[in-house]
Amino acid sequence: MVDGARSSGTLNTKAAALAWEATVRTAKPAGQLVTQTCLDAFEKYEREVSAKKKGARWEGFRLAAFGRSDFAKVLIREVNASHVAAWRDQRVKAVSGATVNREMNLLSNVFTVARKEWKWIKESPTADVSRPKDGKPRFRRIVQAEIDQICIALG
Questions:
Q1: b/e burial code for range 95-118 (CB count within 10 A of at least 16 → b)
Q2: Terminus of the chain with fewer CB atoms < 10 Å: N or C?
Q3: Which DSSP string corresponds to 84-151?
C-alpha cells in the first residue's frame, strides 16, 4: 500500500519484484508531477522558513538574488550540480569565497527543505558541488595614535 492505494503484481524473480516495488513507491500519481521552479522554492522558503528566523531580512535579500540567477527559472526537479557549480563559478568572480560559502549554505538549506518537507526533489543538487576556499584572514596593525587614544580613555 502506498498513500492508501493498493497495487500488486506477479513477477518472475525477487530482484524484478524489488525493482518494481521501488518504482511504485517513488512514482508520483498522475497529476502530482512537480512543476515548481527554483524561484517558487525560493519564494516559499522565504515565506515559510526565513520568516521565522532572526536574520529573515538578510536571507530575503540573498533569496531575491538567487531569484535573479540563471537557474531560478529551471524546474526544481531538473536542477543538478552543474547548475549550482555554474552559479558558484560566476559568483566567485564577484565576491569572496567566504561569501559564496554562506550563500551556498542557504541554497543547500532551500533544497534540503524542498526535499524533506515539500517532497519536490529526491536529492539536493548542492551535495556534489565543491565549495570555494575561504580567503586569507585580514590582519591589521594598530597604529600609535589608536594606542594613545585607548590609554587616554582608560586613564
A1: eeeebbeebbebbbbbbebbbeeb
A2: C
A3: HHHHHHHHHTTS-HHHHHHHHHHHHHHHHHHHHTS---SS-TTTTPPPPPPPPPP--PPPHHHHHHHH
Domain span including residue 18? 1-32
Could you give the CA distance from residue 15 to residue 10 in angstroms, rounded to a whole number?
Answer: 12
- In this structure, the answer to whether residues 64 and 125 fall within a common structural domain is yes
Domain count, the chain: 2
pLDDT tens over the chain, length 155 residues: 665 667 777 888 888 887 777 777 666 555 556 688 999 999 999 999 998 999 899 999 999 999 998 888 889 988 899 999 999 999 999 998 899 999 999 999 999 999 999 889 999 999 889 999 887 778 889 999 999 999 999 98
Same domain, 25 and 51: no
Q: Assign residue 59 the CATH number of its domain.
A: 1.10.150.130
Q: With contact defined as beta carbons under 8 Å apart, do 56 and 100 qualify?
A: no
Q: How far, in Å, CA of 70 to CA of 108, rounded?
A: 17
